[in-house]
Design goal:
Elements (H helix, E strand, L loop, with lengths): L8 H11 L5 E4 L4 H14 L4 E7 L5 H14 L3 E5 L6 H5 L4 H17 L7 E3 L4 H5 L5 H7 L5 H4 L4 H11 L24 H16 L6 E5 L2 E5 L5 H6 L1 H9 L5 E4 L3
Parallel strand pairs: 1-2, 1-4, 2-3, 6-7
Antiparallel strand pairs: 5-6
Helix pairs in contact: 1-2, 2-9, 5-7, 10-12
């Protein structure tokens, strides 16, 4: 409990204070830095026996991300409860409008409320929205959290993304510097249907790119064309390895590989 949080100490205490009166807490958990930091601070407030990590599992979650999430929760010392969600059965989600994230989060929080809360005797649910997220107009998932009464302690404490990463480093979390990893459905342009086949293609292509040594990537699904996004510093290497990159993408079921220079 003697971790030095420096300038973020007051925000950390606000988070801990908000959670400390809760009997048992479920944290909507992805393994990313926001939810992991919230999970670790929940343990700080309540102890590991009163906290459960709730991992939504569906075709939009990459297998590597699922494995990594379990590893991070294990590092924190909290059990993971996998919550099988069925957002793909919702016509509004499949339609992939700008509100897709709302239907995804609504499905997650609905399923937690119906199938998990009573089984694990949870008094409240929280998720890792940060203060930067609050200022963004394109976060429809936040509406679902409000609808279901889900807590957002990081945002309430004024912790932006930079502060979350600083706290994660102070806590020694292995995901402190992990790049953002939005769900696979985010790779499909709005109003193009989200179907399992497309999600599987994206997952396979991104995994193949990681195996080539690219540190962070997005493979945007444009029908037969995969639009590959890479960090600026890795664009030149992608050109040098263009044939391997092409094979990686074609092997995932696309016909063409395009490198996004922007």
């Amino acid at each position: 409990m003697d971790t030095d949080f420096g300038a973020d100490a007051a925000a950390v205490e606000r988070v801990v204070g908000q959670l400390s009166g809760i009997g048992r807490l479920g944290v909507a958990f992805s393994g990313g830095v926001d939810s992991a930091t919230l999970l670790a601070l929940a343990v700080r407030a309540l102890g590991p026996d009163r906290v459960v990590a709730l991992l939504g599992v569906s075709p939009s979650l990459a297998a590597d991300e699922r494995t990594a999430a379990h590893a991070v929760a294990g590092h924190i010392g909290v059990p993971v409860v996998e919550v099988a969600t069925r957002e793909g059965e919702r016509a509004e989600y499949r339609a992939n409008g700008p509100d897709r994230c709302f239907h995804c989060k609504d499905e997650l929080f609905t399923t937690i409320g119906q199938e998990v809360v009573q089984r694990y005797r949870l008094d409240r649910i929280a998720y890792g929205e940060n203060a930067d997220d609050v200022r963004r107009p394109d976060r429809p998932g936040a509406r679902a959290a409000t609808r279901h009464g889900v807590l957002r302690p990081l945002a309430d404490a004024g912790m932006d993304k930079a502060a979350v990463r600083r706290v994660a480093r102070a806590l020694g979390l292995p995901c402190a510097d992990k790049p953002a990893a939005p769900c696979l459905a985010s790779r499909i342009p709005h109003h193009e249907p989200v179907i399992p086949q497309k999600l599987a293609q994206v997952e396979a292509a991104e995994r193949a790119l990681r195996e080539l040594g690219f540190t962070d990537s997005r493979v945007r699904h444009h029908g037969e064309v995969a639009r590959v996004e890479l960090p600026t510093a890795e664009l030149a290497r992608a050109v040098e390895l263009r044939e391997q990159v092409r094979r990686a993408v074609v092997g995932a079921g696309f016909r063409f590989a395009a490198l996004d220079l922007a």
